[in-house]
Structure formats: structure tokens, C-alpha cells
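Entry 14. Structure prediction run on the chain below.
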Amino acid sequence: MCSREILSMQYSVFGSILTIGAMLGAITAGRIADLLGRKGAMRLSSVICSAGWLAIYLAKEPMVLYLGRVLSGYSIGIISYVVPMFVGEISPNKLRGALSSTNQLSIVIGLSAVYVIGAFVGWRILALLGVVPCGLLFLGLFFIPESPRWLAMNGEEEEFEAALRKLRGKHADISYERSTIQEYLTILQTLPKVTFVNLFDRSNYRAVIISVGLMAFQQFVGINGIVFYSTEIFKSAGFNPSLGTILFGILQVGVTAGGALLIDRTGRRPLLMMSASGLLLGNLLIAFSFFFKAHSVALTLVPNLAILGVLVYIAFFSIGMGAGPWLIMSEVFPLHVKGLGGGLVTLMNWFGSWVISYTFNFLMLWSSHGTFFLYAFVCLLATIFIYKMIPETKGRRLEEIHASLNS
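Output returned:
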């Protein structure tokens, strides 16, 4: 094995080890959220993430550094499942899409902030600063109510009504929503205890196929390859990587904000269809930039095609496929299987993330243009899947969505 391949393997392992922790977090996230509550799971995640960042900050040897990344990944695996579910359970029907999309918006704002701060401080200081949002989350959870649906599911009737009242407003009429949730939970209580096998029962398998399939496509269209290695893509194409990264972050934040405003107006399906189609175009532009470079054709166009492809890709990902799969996951699973089902979906997300981040360098060594032609083909499959399988959930009560999937 040549030195270049060894370095690529080490780089791939280091870049993907966080996702291993995230997969472990995803496996346990559902049970933790059902046992400790949605707030309890988020609070636990903030503590573990703080420990991970501190381990990275204090690391004197590689193993401690890896431990910190795994701990951080574990906490991310928990919170990446719990937050969309929590937001979906507490949001009014007409605002559920927009509020759920703000989670993705917050993520991209955080990533952009890290890019900016990282340009001025060392990695240890950056790791120490990572503890700050963990502490803010831990403290902030004391000022928000628990999910009313989780409280009702656990028989805490007084807390259930108080939480729903606090979320909807002091003078809001909550009688219809309260009775709907209670009636639905009465039906669920007659069902046997859920096991992993029950996810594939006739009443649940459509939700599993929709959410797991959509989450798989979110990752296998190549997003982490582009996000993690965007600088290398710009360098390989001969474009200024600093300028590319700045444009990347600005566009990601702006378009994600636009998607949050649109998702409850246009609906989920149109944005997801448009997003997958745009990802196909972005991958093709990047693929042709590398193809032209490899064959010394239209070399003056290569940098422009590369940067245009990356920006088109991230714009269309941010408007639909970024937040959409998490929103759909939070909507399609019935409450009694949401822990197991959501955990499975989150596991698929981080497994896909690991596969793409680990294999990207090897694919690029095989064929740079072939890599993005492959991702473009996956985008085509994603477009077909969305058209055939994804229901429109805009403005519908969660209980109504679950009933329609079972009909």
C-alpha cells in the first residue's frame, strides 16, 4: 500500500470516527427519549457533548482525541433524533414545517460560525468553545415545557394539560387538541408492547419505508462528501478554497432560511422534489468539471463549473433534503413506535454519513468525475422515490397522518 493510500485511509478514519459515535447514539436515542422524556434526553446529550469537547481540548495523545470525538458523536446521535421529534410534537399544525426547519437552519448557522471562528483560533480553543452551546442548552431546558404527548403517554395528566396550555397560550382553546391526543393515546394503550419486529407490521411498515428511505437518500446523494471535503474539491478543481468556503456558508444559511419560510406554504413534496432535482444538476456540474480537467478540455471553464456545481448542490440540499427527512420522520411515526422507529431512522442517517465520509476519498482516487456521476444517479433514484412514496403532510394533525398511512 502506497503512502498516499495510507494517508487517505487515516484521513478517512479520522473524518468518519465521529459518525461511529453518532450511530451508537442513534441506537439508544429512542429508548432514552421514551424513558427520560424529550427534555431529559436533550439534557443528557448536552452533558455527554461537553465531556467530549473537554476531552478533545485536554487531549495529549490520539486515543483521548478519538474518545472525545466518539463522545461528541454519541451526543449528536441522540440530539439529532430528539430535537426534530420534540419540535414536531409541540408545534401547531400550521407551523410544524417551519419550526422543524429552524433546527436545520440552526445547524448550518452553527457550522458557518465554526468556519469563521476556526479561521482565527486554534483547534483546542475551538473545542473549548464547543462547551458553550452545550451549557446554554442544558440551562435553557429549564425554561421550556416537556412534550405534552410524552407527558400524556406516561399518564401525567396535569402536567400534560399545563404544558399544552403553556405552548398554545394562556387564552387559547386547547380542548379539541387535548381530546384528540387523549383519544389517540387511549387507542395506543390497547396495543401490545412494541418490539423492533413490530416496526415492520402492516400498520407501521409504510412509515418505516418512507422515513428510512428518505433519510438514506439524504446521505447517499453525497452531502457529507461535499461538506467535509469542499475545500479539497475547490483545490482539485483549481478554485480558491477560501472564497469557495465563504460562499458555501453564506448560501447554506440563506437558502435554509428560505426553505423554512416556504415549507408550510408549498408543502413537503414540492420542496423535496425540487431539492432532489437540483442535487442531480449540482452533481452533474461537478462531475463534468472534473471530467473536463482530466481530459484537458475547456480548462478555463473547470473552476467555474466546480464552484457553480457546489453552490447549486448546497442551495438545493438546504431548501429541501436537509430538513425535509427529519421533518417527515417526526410526522409519520405513531407515538408508541416513535422511539424505535426514530432511532432506526437516525441510525440510517449516521450510517449513511459514515459510509459517504469514509468512502469519498477512495472514490476520488478511483475517479473524481465518476464519483459525482455516481452521486447524480442516486439523486435520480431519490427523485423517483419522493414522487412515488412521500405523502403530503402539510397542515395535517399528526394523528391524522398516522391514520392515513394505516388506511
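The chain has a mean pLDDT of 86.
Filed with the rest of this week's runs.
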